[in-house]
Amino acid sequence: MQTANKKPRKAPLEKAGAPRGRKANGVAQQNGEGDAVTLFEVVRLGKSAMQSVVDDWIESYKHDRDMALLDLINFFIQCSGCKGTVRIEMFRNMQNAEIIRKMTEEFDEDSGDYPLTMPGPQWKKFRYNFCEFIGVLIRQCQYSIIYDEYMMDTVISLLTGLSDSQVRAFRHTSTLAAMKLMTALVNVALNLSIHQDNTQRQYEAERNKIVGKRANEKLELLLQKRKELQENQDEIENMMNSIFKGIFVHRYRDAIAEIRAICIEEIGVWMKMYSDAFLNDSYLKYVGWTLHDRQGEVRLKCLKALQNLYTNRELFPKLELFTNRFKDRIVSMTLDKEYDVAVEAIRLVTLILQGSEDALSNEDCENVYHLVYSAHRPVAVAAGEFLHRKLFSRHDPQAEEALAKRRGRNSPNGNLVRMLVLFFLESELHEHAAYLVDSLWESSQELLKDWECMTELLLEEPVQGEEVLSDRQESALIELMVCTIRQAAEAHPPVGRGTGKRVLTAKERKTQIDDKNKLTEHFIMALPMLLSKYQADAEKVANLLQIPTFFDLDVYSAGRMEKHLDALLKQIKFVVEKHTETEVLEACSKTYSILCSEEYTIMNRVDIARSQLIDEMVDRFNHSVEDLLQEGEEADDDDIYNVLSTLKRLTAFHNAHDLTRWDLFGNCYRLLKTGIEQGTMPEQIVVQALQCSHYSILWQLVKITEGSPTKAFMLLCDLLMIFSHQLTTGSREALQPLVFNPDGQLQNELLSFVLDHVFIDQDEENQSMEGDEEDEANKIEALHKRRNLLAAFSKLIIYDIVDMPAAADIFKHYMKYYNDYGDIIKETLSKTRQTDKIQCAKTLILSLQQLFNELIQDQGPNLDRTSSHVSGIKELARRFALTFGLDQIKTREAVATLHKDGIEFAFKYQNPKGMEFPPPNLAFLEVLSEFSSKLLRQDKKTVYVHHSYLEKFLTEQMMERREDVWLPLISYRNSLLTGGDEDRLSVTSGGGSSKAGSVRSKKGRPPLHKKRVDGKDPSTCNEHSCLGSWLMRNDTIQTPGALQTPQLTSTVLRENPRQAAEQMPDQDSEPGSDPQMQMSWLGQQKLEEVNRKDRTGMNYMKARSGGVRRGLMEDDAEPIFEDVMMSSRGQLEDMNEEFEDTMVIDLPPSRNRRERAELRPDFFDSAAMIEDESVSGGFTMPMF
């Protein structure tokens, strides 16, 4: 088997001794290595003119026809995608079937693609070049070579054999070649037929001459020429018969749809090109049969082939029998499941209609009529073209114009408009008038834009010979007229048709502007008259009032047509006073709203008319409400109707207009209150009063939002808190439908608002306050507002209303804005850790990652590790690490998850320069090192030594690197390899025992050499079996539905220290006592540090206001630990066990403590949101 990368064989020209290095457009074109390229490559590249390529091949054929034919045979083989080559020995000694079998073995079995099916513009061009080559080849050979009984016989025989192959590529390529060859031969046969006719006429003309003037030699030459042409004609016909019977008849029903489509497409070309020979039932039947093909691609080719035939009216007589036989099938294809096929079928039916009015029955036409309402626009437009040809095309325009003038009409389209109305009514799809107009828009624009004719039919009395429009016909005409106005003004299809608004071309835009001006100028004068005539008909008025929405309102001022505006406003007022239907009133309200647009100069005139109308309605409403409430249960129907009718009008206007200055809410509230108290208020009045009150509230909200976005934000946060998932707690499951959970987009918008309005620099604040009195009071007030915003958003995070990762954008500002928001941020951190330790840890590391990414974006990948920015991130990480407290057992999984996420982030991206260079985020490991001290010894081993999670990301090259750029990795590895003893002796906690019952030693820590005998330390259990379980666990921990408020030291009940002392056992216990009996070495160290600060803590507590707990939004910025007065080791351990989850960052007191002490926060029920839980009978803390 020949490989795919085999060098192309030398062209026959070179083997036959032809000169090498020919022109660039020759067959034996030289490539860069000096070898001749194949004919296939020349055609594929398409750089040479096909005429020159064929001429060069003809030269080679004349020189050595075997080698030239061999080149042509290999051309067809290679165009099929076969890598094999037919050699001269095979060509001379083997049959076609044997050659094809041999070539079949040369196919690449790994790929099913071949040139005709390969995607891309290159192969699309190749297909065109392939077809062109065959056509040019026959055209250039038509006078000599094709009649040598060798070339054509060889080619046809080869293509016939290939077309019968089981290999799809051979079959497809050879069928295409054969069909194009047949098309070229048909063209040759047509030329021969023309030459024969010309020769015959010359012969007849010469023979009819008198004997003296007759040239016998010329007659003999003409006879000889006619005989030669006839022989050539016979040979061409034999060739065509061989192709048709040997290839077409078998391949038009091939299993591959593409091959069938090729056959049908080409037979259509033959019938159109040489209709005398091919346009007969013997060939048409193949197209008719294929109309039933199961593939839409083939059916589409059939219809397009027939369209080319039906376009020529001269061919209709030859198509009559075919039309009668296959008409039903063609009509049924208008409903084809493939939209492209249905469109072409409708166009074909339209061509049949144009050729013969009698060819289609009424039933056939009706099957196409209803397609104008199709949701698929191309189908509807094609059906609209058919409808226009059948019903709306004027057969004698001059006669109709003369008739219109005799009747006194300006437009001759009156009858056509009537016919359109009748068609619309008979279709019984009245709600689809917009679809009907859109379907006819491209074919019947002149008729649909004849608004003058439509208004004449509506306003003027019918003249002699015209029928009066019925009420139903008038309604239909008005609806159609409004739809045409909308289509002209908007210049895009109605809703439901098309994928969206497309960009108009310059010509379409100009047409749209002209149409809008035309309709505006006409209906400015006609609309008041139409409203006056039909003001009592709700349906007609509702449609007519849509027309002003499409006006160019500048025309009123530019054309000095204010009197027509006054007439329109007068008619609208009459309509409002006459109707109570919601549809009509909303149309009037919308019209006023459009006419009152501030961008137009007519706004003041319209606003005055609107205010007068509303004044009248409000006055009437107030009096009717007073009458109704005074009458009470004795109110009659008139009182109820007066209230209901005016309330309906006001409600409709309140929807689109701000009527708050008329204070409609007061009387609506009175009606509702009376209905609740007495229960006698009619339901319709209650509904309208509720609706009107609803609009009043909405307009007030709009004012609040426009005036102060801060108030809107606070209101939204409160609403989210009220309607959160906690609404259903306490056996209130019935309120579940009221629960609202904000989606991701709303959460992002809330967070963006906080970031934009809370975390702003002092310079920005001063700039925003420029022009105001910049004193301390203003600064404190501005800070107070920002703290309110942050606290409101923090509540949403704490109560799991906003996803916890959103807190990362808050936590990362802790250091920078500690003086302003430190207390709020650390309380948020404390509460979120109580909710979910692991998710809180992931949020902390996410905030550090965000800061790191921002630094990378500002400074680039090569960070200065000694810069203040990097140090700031490390300092923030150190502060975050302190919040995990001393009990490493309880924070074990959270810290491990934090390290896992940090490692993944550090090695997330590879260096584009290669593996020998550090990853871009490697410096983040230096930040992560700040948390290494919070890992237990065995967890450090899990991260680095045993089952190394870190080593999953390290290569041997990374492990050996010692350059400065790798220092973060070295530093992080060292932080994991140190501190093992401290971890082994770290604070332990018995998870199974209650906190109140914790037993502690009275004395100091036990000697370091003293070992446990019976008990096992939890920090050393299952070191190899379950060390990595926390790394592999699922991080999607379920968050508790309602947050349990933790106990703080200020709320703990204290008991007698003697009782606590009595509960402590003597230190001289058994060596195998419970681990809780031992106090850790770290605890002792912490105790000593606390004792050193004891005096400072005592002084600070004296300055505090007492033991009252401060809420989330209070102004305290001091650490929680300093709220506790401690003078004993037992107190330290109690505090460590109870409050390690709420331990906060220990920073110096705020400089702005005095300023924030003056703030008086007014938050949304903060006491209810974060409520202290009283502890009764629990753990006690002695006071000294």
TrEMBL record:
Q: Which InterPro entries match?
A: ARM-type_fold (IPR016024), Cohesin_Scc3/SA (IPR039662), HEAT_SCC3-SA (IPR056396), SCD (IPR020839), STAG (IPR013721)
Domain (SCD) ranges: 248-333
GO cellular component term, pick one: chromosome, centromeric region
Q: Check the record and name the PROSITE patterns matching this protein.
A: SCD (PS51425)
Molecular function, one GO term? chromatin binding
* Stretches with biased composition (Basic residues): 1-10, 1000-1013
Domain of life (superkingdom) = Eukaryota
The principal localisation class reads: nucleus
Q: State any GO BP term from the record.
A: sister chromatid cohesion
Name the segments for region: Disordered: 1-30, 981-1021, 1056-1076
Query: What keywords were assigned to this record?
Result: Cell cycle, Cell division, Chromosome, Chromosome partition, Coiled coil, Nucleus
Q: Which residues form a coiled coil?
A: 212-242
**Localization per Swiss-Prot or TrEMBL:** Nucleus; Chromosome; Chromosome, Centromere
The family line of this record is: Belongs to the SCC3 family.
Q: What does this protein do?
A: Component of cohesin complex, a complex required for the cohesion of sister chromatids after DNA replication. The cohesin complex apparently forms a large proteinaceous ring within which sister chromatids can be trapped. At anaphase, the complex is cleaved and dissociates from chromatin, allowing sister chromatids to segregate.
Q: How does it assemble?
A: Part of the cohesin complex which is composed of a heterodimer between a SMC1 protein (SMC1A or SMC1B) and SMC3, which are attached via their hinge domain, and RAD21 which link them at their heads, and one STAG protein.
Its protein name is Cohesin subunit SA
Tell me what organism the protein belongs to.
Answer: Scleropages formosus
> What are the top taxonomic ranks of the organism?
Eukaryota, Metazoa, Chordata, Craniata, Vertebrata
